[in-house]
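Entry 14. Ran structure prediction on the chain below.
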Amino acid sequence: MRKLVLIVVMLCFTGVADVRAQRYDRGFDLKSSTFVEKGTWMIGGQVAYSTHSNDNYRFLIIEDINSNGYRFTVSPMVGYAISDNMALGVRFAYGRNKLHVEQANLNIADININVKDYYTLSHDFTGMVVYRNYIPLGSSKRFALFNETQLAVGIGQAKLINGRDINSVVGTYEESLSLKLGLNPGLIAFVNDHLAVEVNVGMLGLQYNSIDQIHNQVYTGSREATQINFKVNIFSIGFGLAYYL
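Output, structure tokens:
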């Protein structure tokens, strides 16, 4: 009788252990389903363009905002699958920003600051080494999650001018250098056997910025900043296309 009870208790513990093992099987075994085969080449990129315009807009203590501008970015990528569901590649990015503030008034108590004809124009170039790993959704060959880890180096230039002539030599000119280590998780869906649509969200891990500026071709200044941030940035959602060979 004692032996029978002992056997029953052992079977119960074994059953609980099996249930816990099944319960905590997250399905991250990449070998269980091959979404991107070793030796696959991928070519793709992202393009984004946005504009904005304000007409007598008010934001908190800033009144009578009249402004317009745009942001344009393009980011081609080439990658190679070094193993099933794992790929290495390079990505290049170019971005251009323009902002023209025709008028804006800042009112604090008896202090009134008026800004007119303020221009800022900037562009930047970034080169990245990327590593991607894919997690298929079940046994699907069409849908998968992915994470793209990026190591990036970027340079940029910007000019800030007070006046109507955007080509004026009077103003503040900046040159920047940036280093980034970032995470970009996303979702991929194949439209056919080779063409895929991708959506990703930027999650910045670590960034360093260095900016040198000269004002009116006389006065110089500099700024350095380091940022560690693992927040999800919903404003950096990217849409792109990729072709898998």
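The longest helix spans residues 2-23. Will compare against last week's run tomorrow.
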